[in-house]
Each structure stands twice: as C-alpha cells, then as structure tokens.
Amino acid sequence: MQTIELEKALKENSYPGRGIIIGKSKDGKSAVTAYFIMGRSENSRNRIFTENEDCGIRTEAFDPSKLEDPSLIIYSPVRVLGNDTVVTNGNQTDTIIDALKDGKCFNRALRTREFEPDAPNYTPRISGIMHIENNSFSYKMSILKSDNGNPDCCIRNTFTYDKPLAGKGRFIHTYMGDGNPLPSFEGEPELVDIPDDMDEFTNMLWSSLNEDNKVSLFVRYIDIATGEYKTNIINKNK
Asked: Residue 89 — φ and ψ, nearest 5°?
C-alpha cells in the first residue's frame, strides 16, 4: 500500500464525514490519534468538543436552543480505560468501554453493533483502540457498514496493527466523499505519515478540512514510555 499525502487527500475531499487517524510519531516516542467531525446540516454543525472526566472528550451542542435530534450527534468520541484509549464516531465508544470493564475484547463488543440507522446513508461506525503497556504500543481499527447501501447486511472489518512503524499511521473515515446518499468508506484504512510535531499535525489537519463543513478536531500524542499525553482541540464554533 502506498502512503497517501494526507493534506492533499483532505483538501480534495469536501466531505470525508468523520475521520479517525491512529499511528506512531516519526521519532517512535508517541502513540498518536486524531478525530474530526464534519457536518452538512445545522444540527450537525451545531457542535463542539469538550474534555470530559475520564481523560476523553464529548460532543456538545454549541447552542442548546438549536439542538434537534441528539441521538447520533451527542456522544463521547474518546474515552480512556487503564492502558486503553478508545476513539470512535458514535456511542459505540461506551459499548467498547463497558465490554473492556467486563473482561471482553474490542471485537466482541462491536459484534453487538451495526452501522448507524440514518437511512439512506447508513453511516458506517468507525472505531479504534490504542493499547500502551510496558513501553509498547499496538492498535486496532474497525468499520461496520452496510453492504453497498443495503441495510440487510452488515459488513464487519477489523484491522490489527501489532507493531506500528514509526512515522506511519492509518486513516479511516465514514464517507468516500459528498453525495446523496453519502458513499461509505471503501477498502483498508489508508496509510499516512505521522510527524513528531503535534501542533504542526493539528494545524495541517484543520487547515486541510473543508472550510464550510468542518466542525471540530481532536489530536492527542501519548508518550509510549510514560503514558503522559498532550491534547489539542479545535472547534469552529467559538
């Protein structure tokens, strides 16, 4: 698989939807993740990221008076449990965390879920889990999607990265681009470069997302040796 130029890919795609990036910094010292949300409707655009009590983030309505249906837009995209950081595009974050607390695994948790019930798009549920322990780092990514727009079949793909390479990461997003209905992501998570500089990476991602459709961005670098982390959050609504 060839490495895609992430900046170029984002600038050429006006609506990748929601996206997750996970990988390792170029110097090999940090486990890295990023999550962004976009929106076409007023309800989807009326959101911000806020930090929550368990070292993660939550989506909230920027203007509560304009909030319509919260079911698919208000959730915790990032939660942390022990050595695991879970990143998803929906309330399956809670499903995964609850399963881990019960001694179950990432894959087993997601077998209880499907794509989102937002016909005709049937938006894929994309998820990732990062495990950092004893100076080592591994991660998994998952996508649950309809079979080419047919909700009678749920396609379940999980990708496991046992020993991530320094300077490389994987990028998965909900849509291939804009459309009606929106076309679901296809194929294996895309291979991308991960720099050492968190602020540089954050600024590149935010500036590359479509100006009209971008809503919020979260970026975190976790020191693999110590578990300490740094976080950047950018909200279009201020």
From this structure: -105, 20
Reported pTM:
0.97
In angstroms, rounded to a whole number, what is the distance separating the alpha carbons of residues 219 and 75? 17
Predicted confidence at residue 187, as pLDDT, reads 97
Closest of 169, 164, 207 to residue 191, by C-alpha: 169
Structure-token match 């390479």, residue found: 165
Taking a C-beta distance cutoff of 8 angstroms, is the pair 99, 117 a contact?
Answer: no
pLDDT number for residue 96: 98
Contacts by residues 72-77 (CB-CB < 8 Å, ≥ 24 positions apart): 72/116, 72/118, 72/123, 73/43, 73/44, 73/47, 74/47, 76/52, 77/35, 77/37, 77/49, 77/218
pLDDT digits (tens, 9 = 90+) for 132-190: 999 999 999 999 999 999 999 999 999 999 999 999 999 999 999 999 999 999 999 99
CATH of 6-235, one of 3.40.50.12780, 3.30.565.10, 3.60.20.20, 2.40.110.10: 3.60.20.20
